[in-house]
Design goal:
Blueprint (H helix, E strand, L loop, with lengths): L1 H18 L6 H24 L3 H9 L1 H33 L12 H7 L1 H27 L6 H6 L1
């Protein structure tokens, strides 16, 4: 392990000495930096141009995609509902009493659904979730591309 560290330090030191040698002048460094910046911008433009919007449209317009989304939504609804019912039953069994002392009143469901206050609260919650998700995605997208040029060239 120590030999690896020493070899790494020697390698870094020799690289630094080579960079600081007199054969590289300031004008050459500026030219190299400009070339690197141009190459970086070209890579960024190539990545933006790679999006095939026809394929994106075909994916979302495909009937099989719509069916998959529909089936996924139904399966999630059923599994979430069953999960809530089973976990509630397990919790009540383990606890010995219901979590809520308020009795379930089926007549209160239409009142809850038709209440303007509850509706506005739910709309604002949905809008808040949407805005938060949009901001998080924008932050992730601002990080840049997810793959390096080396990995892309290997593909």
């Amino acid at each position: 392990m120590m030999i690896l560290v020493i070899l790494t330090l020697v390698s870094v030191k020799s690289s630094a000495a080579q960079l600081h040698s007199d054969q590289y002048q300031a004008a050459d460094r500026t030219q190299i930096e400009d070339d690197m910046q141009i190459k970086f911008l070209q890579v960024r433009q190539d990545k933006v141009a790679e999006v095939d919007f026809d394929a994106v449209y075909d994916f979302f317009a495909s009937p099989s995609t719509g069916q998959k989304f529909f089936v996924t939504t139904i399966v999630q609804l059923i599994s979430n509902t069953l999960g809530w019912i089973l976990l509630s039953a397990m919790w009540i069994t383990a606890r010995g009493s219901p979590a809520s002392l308020i009795a379930f009143d089926p007549d209160s469901i239409p009142k809850f659904l038709a209440s303007p206050t509850d509706a506005s609260i739910n709309i604002l919650l949905g809008a808040g979730y949407t805005v938060t998700t949009t901001i998080v995605w924008a932050l992730f997208l601002a990080l840049g591309p997810l793959y390096s040029p080396r990995r892309r060239s290997a593909d």
